Every structure is written in structure tokens, then in C-alpha cells.
Amino acid sequence: MDVTITPSTVSGTAQAPPSKSYTHRAILAAGYADGAVVRDPLVSADTRATMRAVEAYGGSVSLSADERELDVTGFDGRPDTPDDVIDCANSGTTMRLVTATAALQDDLTVLTGDDSLRSRPQGPLLDAVEQLDGEAESTRRNGQAPLVVGGGVDGGAVEIPGDVSSQYITALLMAGAVTPDGVDIDLTTDLKSSPYVDITLEVLDDYGVAAERTAEGFTVAGGQSYAPTGGEYSVPGDFSSMSYLLAAGALAAEDGLLVTSAFPSAQGDSAIVDVLDEMGAALDWDRENGEIEVSKSALSGVEVGVKDTPDLLPTIATLGAAADGVTHITDAEHVRYKETDRVSAMAEELTKMGAEVEERRDELVVYGEESDLTGATVDGRADHRIIMSLAVAGLVADGETTVTGAEHVDVSFPDFFDVLDSLGASVQR
């Protein structure tokens, strides 16, 4: 599906979608439990992959008609060996989290995904499973899916880099809680995307599981049981997805835009509020009521590091292209290992729209004062975050902007274009 956006103003109220990161963890935690009800989940292509994995390991997942509630019957810490290959589709979070689950069962599980997912690095997690005396191999011996994992690990100590993916840490902590001996994680490099592990620790705590940071990394005791209070868990709003709404407001909401479900949490991507504030956006966050009001503003370039907030790079790049001055996005090399190389993708697609952009190995520099955004046909790269960021750029570009492959927003924000349309944006599908 291609979507065409023409210059528009937006106004009104938009509710942020539920958090994808929290939903993944909540579904798998319910799977590790005897069962639980997950309220207000994000139902998307990625989270459905995690639902399928829980079912493959012997659980069941029932979605209410209004998609506001998931009733999960779990496998109680003892996953079955799946009858078939687990297809994680395009969801890297699913693959990494349930790879550690596979290590708990004695036999072997095969995990795969689409072309993009089969190109993403899994080697450090496979090595960690082997350090725990499990079996873990890449069928092509290149550290990428398809993966074959099993061995019935009992826990132990692992060394693993922290600068490739924080999801490795999440996977080991979640699985480690139900091993007999627990898991101690020694990080061999600095941890990037650290707030995502904070999300994991928060979800584990809500499910009654104790895990903590140590001087070396992280630790989780074994023999624990997953059991949320009252048998229920509620998913908060998603700041990664909210970033596109807030950016649209800062660029095109002459009469203001109100974004709801913006309650504080461990999400690192809430840093978008600080970024917008530093750029000069007229913005007010009512944390108690979970509401952010933002209006069209004259923005100025900033320097911002995305070590802990890689998913914000596309949004910040778009804002920088519409701002005065220079926006310098640093510490970004790990952003190249997402659904696509997001550093190159934003550099190339914004350039098509008339932006002056310089791509470096671990940096993206956007020269807003030299940019004059004009409509163009841009490639969404089958990446939900690239698609939504380019669509926001289309709100202020001169002429028509057509984003190809726009259906891939279903990964994290399935009704994104419906929401934009409801706010007054000119959207043609």
C-alpha cells in the first residue's frame, strides 16, 4: 500500500497506542506464568508473533472481540517443544525473547522469520545459551536465523556484550527466573538501549519476579514464579509511537494537539518530550493525567545522542529537516541493525525530499537551514518507523509525498494513518 500526504494542519485529540515493548514482555511473562490477563495490549503484527510463540510452547492466547484484553493460559515455566517451526515474521523482539525460552526445553526448537529478520544479529544470544550448557546454532553458521535452540538449561553465569541489543539481556532475565539456578549476566561492553532493560525489570516486578542490576550487569534468581497481582497486567501508552504524533503537533498543529495515554513509565523514548522542548516546541506535559499538549512551533536544531533511544532517530531526523540550524544525532551505529539500516534509510529518503543530510558511521547530521522539504516518492523500507517519520515530513513538505509500503505500520501503530486523517491531515490511500 502506498500513502500520499499533502501539506496539512492537524488538531484535536489523539490517544497514543499501547506500548509494543511492554506488550511483548507482558504476553511472554503471562506465558511463563500459569496464566494472566493482559489489558490494553497493542495488537499488531509483531505482538501477534509473540502470541503465536507462547502458543507454540504450550500456552494459549485468547483475544477479546474489542482487542482490549488478552486472556493467556501459560506454560508455567515449563515450555513444550513446539510441533513446528516458530515463525517470528518481522519481530526481532519476539525472536530474541523466545530464543531464551527455547533453551529451557530439553529438545530442539527452530526459529525463523522474514528476510529482514533473518539478516539481524543473534550470535551473542546463541553464545550465551551455549555458556549455560544449552544448544544454540545458526543454521547458516552466521549468527543469524534460522536458529536451532534447546538443551534444557539450568541457569548459570554468562558474559555477553551490551552494545548490540538490550533484548539479549531481557531474554536471559525472563527465562532465567524459571531456571533452577538463575542467571548472572556479566556485560563485556557498555549497555546501549538501557531503558529497555528498565522496562523489563519493571514488568518482571509487576509479575512478582525479582531481578536487579549488579556491578557487572544483571542477575535474576532461579525458581521464581510469574504471577501478577490479581492475575492482571495493564499495558501503558507507547512513547515510541507517540513521538510521531508529538512531531506532527510541533510541525503542523496551529491550534494545538492533545496526546493522551502519556503516563510516565520506564520508557526511554519519553525523552522525545525533552528533545522537542530543547528544540523550542510549545509543549506541556501533564504527567498526572497522562496528557501532552503540543503546538506548531519554530524549531531549532539540537545535538542529541540516541545510545538509549534508538527508535527515536527517524523522528528526530524529520524534526531536524524542518528546523532551523543543524540537528546532530550521535551514538547511532546500533540503529543500523533494526528492521532496516535506519541511519542510511533516513539519510537517503530525506535527501529525496530536499533535505541536506550527512551520514556518518555512528552519526546523522541534518542541516535544517539548508533544507527545503518538497514532496517526493519515498521508500518506507518495510520499516514502520521509517514510514511514520516520512509521513510526518510530508505534512510540511511542498507538494505530494508518497510513502511506499505503508502497510508496514501494522507492526506497532496499525491505525496510524486513520489517526492522522482524523486529526485533519490530508491522507490518500
UniProtKB/TrEMBL annotation:
Catalytic activity: 3-phosphoshikimate + phosphoenolpyruvate = 5-O-(1-carboxyvinyl)-3-phosphoshikimate + phosphate
GO cellular component, one term: cytoplasm
Pathway participation: Metabolic intermediate biosynthesis; chorismate biosynthesis; chorismate from D-erythrose 4-phosphate and phosphoenolpyruvate: step 6/7
Keyword tags: Amino-acid biosynthesis, Aromatic amino acid biosynthesis, Cytoplasm, Transferase
Main location: cytoplasm
GO biological process, one term: aromatic amino acid family biosynthetic process
Active site: D311 (proton acceptor)
Start and end residues of each Enolpyruvate transferase domain: 7-420
Enzyme Commission number(s) of this protein: 2.5.1.19
Positions of phosphoenolpyruvate binding: K20, G92, R120, Q167, R342, R385
Subcellular locations according to the entry: Cytoplasm
UniProt region (Disordered), positions on chain: 1-20
Single GO molecular function: 3-phosphoshikimate 1-carboxyvinyltransferase activity
Superkingdom field: Archaea
Signal found in the keyword field: no
InterPro entries named in the record: Enolpyruvate_Tfrase_dom, Enolpyruvate_Tfrase_sf, EPSP_synthase, EPSP_synthase_CS, RNA3'P_cycl/enolpyr_Trfase_a/b
Chain positions recorded as 3-phosphoshikimate binding sites: K20, S21, R25, S165, S166, Q167, S193, D311, K338
Top-level EC class: transferase
Subunit: Monomer.
Function of the protein: Catalyzes the transfer of the enolpyruvyl moiety of phosphoenolpyruvate (PEP) to the 5-hydroxyl of shikimate-3-phosphate (S3P) to produce enolpyruvyl shikimate-3-phosphate and inorganic phosphate.
Family assignment from sequence similarity: Belongs to the EPSP synthase family.
HAMAP family hit by this protein: EPSP_synth
Name of the protein in question: 3-phosphoshikimate 1-carboxyvinyltransferase
Origin species: Haloarcula salina
